[in-house]
Amino acid sequence: MIKAVIFDLDGVLTDTAVYHYQSWKAIASNFNYDLSEHDNEKLKGVSRADSLRFIIEWASASVSSDQIPALLKEKNDHYLRLINDLSQSDILPGVLDFLNLLEANQCKKAVGSSSKNAPFILEKLGLAHRFAAVIDGNGVKNTKPDPEVFLNAAEKLEVNPVNCLVVEDAPSGIQAAKAAGMKVIGVGLDLQGADLCVSTLTGLTWDQIQNI
Ligand code: B16
Ligand code: MG
């Protein structure tokens, strides 16, 4: 029985992936590396610091450890400029109806995101008040694919992990949810390991959720 749903943020509640991509592309160009969309897929759900590590490795760049904080700040400043105009109109299709469906069935709701900008983005979207718990990149030691973010959310909601359903768009997040012992809906194509794959949350029913 599903008693709680834990939502990933970027790629599930809103599509900020394109802004992460543009910001990382600018950072990668410092290393003369042309970051492809294929590369960017591998960064979805991955923390800011780990994403930078991947890009440095792909670019075979030599970057000293004291340059890292400035690069992370440059990336985030760029990203924050791009998401400054985010609003309720940027909530992905089906999300509001799905939240209403869960509320009508007394199902608990949380956010489990790798993003340190999650509280800011939820405010911009006007969704912050819809979740009983928000666990994000500020509150975990180990980010996805580690299960910590989802286990913390389940603990905060006081729901056993086996009664939790995660909604994710990234392979790292699906791995994290499975490692937490939870069911997963994958939003997007080719999401291996998800119990159910959908292109959007539109039209999902309470029965479907319970029979995942
Ligand atoms: P930030 P999610 C993840 O959010 C993004 O998918 C990933 O691309 C990003 O690098 C990560 O958050 C960290 O984000 O730089 O804002 O702290 O998909 O787990 O909600
Ligand atoms: Mg995501």
Care to describe what's here?
This protein is α/β, with parallel strands linked by helices and 212 residues long. It has two domains: 4-15 and 87-210, Rossmann fold, CATH 3.40.50; 17-83, Putative phosphatase, domain 2 (DNA polymerase, domain 1, Orthogonal Bundle). It is 42% helix and 12% strand. The chain is built from nine helices and six strands. The protein has helices spanning 17-29, 37-43, 48-59, 68-82, 95-104, 118-125, 148-157, 171-179, 206-210, and strands spanning 4-7, 108-112, 133-135, 164-168, 183-187, 196-198. Strands 3-2-1-4-5-6 form a six-stranded parallel beta sheet. Strand 2 (108-112), helix 6 (118-125) and strand 3 form a beta-alpha-beta unit. Helix 1 (17-29) crosses helix 4. The protein is globular. It starts with a strand and ends with a helix. The mean pLDDT is 96. The structure holds 1,6-di-O-phosphono-beta-D-glucopyranose and magnesium ion. The site of 1,6-di-O-phosphono-beta-D-glucopyranose (B16) has 20 residues, from helix 3.
